[in-house]
Design brief:
Elements: E1 4-13, E2 16-26, E3 31-35, H1 42-49, E4 57-62, E5 71-74, H2 79-82, H3 88-93, H4 97-100, H5 108-120, H6 136-149, E6 154-158, H7 166-181, E7 185-189, H8 193-199, E8 202-205, E9 211-214, H9 215-220, H10 222-235
Parallel strand pairs: 3-7, 3-8, 5-6, 6-7
Antiparallel strand pairs: 1-2, 1-4, 8-9
Amino acid sequence: MALITVQNLALGYDSRAIVENLNFSVNMGDYLCIVGENGSGKSTLMKTLLHLQEPVSGQILTGDGLRKNEIGYLPQQTVVQKDFPASVWEIVLSGCQSRCGLRPFYTREEKRLAEENMERMSITDLRNRCYRELSGGQQQRVLLARALCATRKILLLDEPVSGLDPKVTAEMYELIAGLNAEGITVIMISHDISAALRYASHILHIGDEVFYGTRNDYLKSNAGRRFMMKQKGGAA
């Protein structure tokens, strides 16, 4: 059974839909990139998948043993969040909060998990550094380690390379691809169509046209061809 199944979903605000008739499923090990024009509803969809926002209509089903508190989330950072005055260790460990329930402390196992994920992201040496003193790439590694503390199954990433320089962007994409190769399912919003086509197994395009399918099918679709032409025109 799919980890997430979306059926006849309509997204929007105040009962007004901005996207309708979304139907797709995400299986274990998939790498789904969500693409589309600015304002098309990509971030709204992610918030709805996270149950942070109610859909206008339709439903989102979880399966394969996935619970709502087992989803790792890396949101777009605001200026305020980038200036957060906490240590790297405190931020990474806070990813275990969903495991705590009403318990007001972290267990030895949860602390070990935080240590492991810091090692995975190569940030152990930053353990005692203040988060706001780090570079953008280091901050994203910290947030990715935090998200991994919440899940062993699925990551939802909202523009994880936004604002990073090309070298750090390439490193972040490789990190995410490596996690996917380990078996972690990835759902990522991306404005970078070339990266989406390089790494994703599936593409969801939302906007004036809606498409869901494999990367290769997207390349052949009207939605894919038109969007890539727009992207090339914008780059020029």
